Amino acid sequence: MKKIIFTLGLLTTSMTWAEEDHSQHSGHVMPPAAVSAAAPVQSLPDAPVLPPPTAAELAAAFPDPGGMDMQTHMGSSRSVFLQVDQLEASHADGDTATVWEARAGWGSASDRLWLGSTGERTHDTSESLETSLLWNHAVARWWDTTLGVRQDGGEGPSRTWAAIGMQGLAPGFFDVGITAFAGESGRTALRLEAEYEARLTNRLILGPAVEVNLYGKDDPDRAIGAGLSDAELGLRLRYEIRREIAPYVGVEWSTTFGDTADMARAAGADDGEASAVAGIRLWY
Predict the structure, then answer these.
(1) 190 against 46, higher pLDDT
(2) Number of folded domains in the chain?
């Protein structure tokens, strides 16, 4: 009997020492007085029970896209667009010209119909005039195909072209485009365009742009030679009062090449010039 009592005493002492050692190593020592003084746990108030949404509320929040997935449904909404990329006065060699590049469109994010106009007018005479009707179709993220017609006016006889091309955002955030044209009497042309926007501040944007035109055959009536014909390089600095309204200033260089330059010199014109520009950019 004495042995049993002695053994139980040793076990009790060992367990007490083990509990004290574990408390010291764990760093959590809770005195008995603190345990007894612990505040009782207070229960949180019951959350209000909201009624389930009605059928009318669900229909308003999740409209039926008519069998389409949500991305197709959102891309199918139609709206009207108006972009005036350039409306400016261009001054070179003592003459001031009015230059514009604008287009109006209707459609969705995936399909748009554009009516565009680009031209230059000096001394009440349209030196160049280009009107286009193009249909853009999205084929990939940031990339569209173009199909339509282009009409050239201004000096010389008018020319009509069928147009097909592609434009989009290239790596490095360059906005690029390539368009091929086919016209009457076997005429062909190719236009390459590139533009970049460097945001200097939240409102101040520097925009370099380049355009190059090539033709498949001579067109003396419009002073156009075969091959690499002309190029324009512009640099404009605009200030966005709002994203839809942005005045700008800049410079532009235009030059001709090959047979086109020869025809310009034969007509007494310069084969290239630099001009200062000031204008406004608008879109709605």
Answers:
(1) 190
(2) 1
| Residue 17 placed within a domain | no
Task: Return the closest-CA partner of residue 105 out of 57, 146, 152.
Answer: 146
CA distance 163 to 231: 19
Q: What's the domain range around 222?
A: 81-283
Give the angle subtended at the CA of 192 by the CAs of 190 and 194, to the nearest 5°.
170
Q: Identify the band that residue 272 occupies on the pLDDT scale cut at 50, 70 and 90.
A: confident
Residue 48, in any domain of the structure: no
Backbone angles phi, psi at 36, to 5 degrees: -70, -25
What is the percentage of the chain residues whose pLDDT exceeds 70? Answer: 76
- Structure token digits, residue 56: 């009318």
* Chain centre to alpha carbon of residue 222: 35
Q: Does residue 16 sit within a domain?
A: no
261 SS3 class: helix
Q: Is 173 a member of any domain? A: yes
- Residues near 99 by Cβ (< 8 Å), separated by ≥ 6? 86, 87, 88, 89, 90, 119, 120, 121, 277, 279
> Token pair for residue 49?
């029970």
d(CA 101, CA 65): 37
pLDDT tens-digit map of 106-132: 999 899 999 999 999 998 888 899 999
Name residue 273's beta-bridge partners. 254
- Which pLDDT value is given to residue 124? 81
- Distance (Å, rounded) from C-alpha 105 to C-alpha 136? 10
164 falls in which pLDDT band (50, 70, 90)? very high
pLDDT band at 32 (very low <50, low <70, confident <90, very high): very low
Task: Determine which helix (DSSP H) or strand (DSSP E) holds 70, and give its type and residue range.
Answer: helix 70-75
The rounded distance, in Å, linking the Cα atoms of 182 and 188 is: 5
CATH code, domain carrying 132: 2.40.160.40
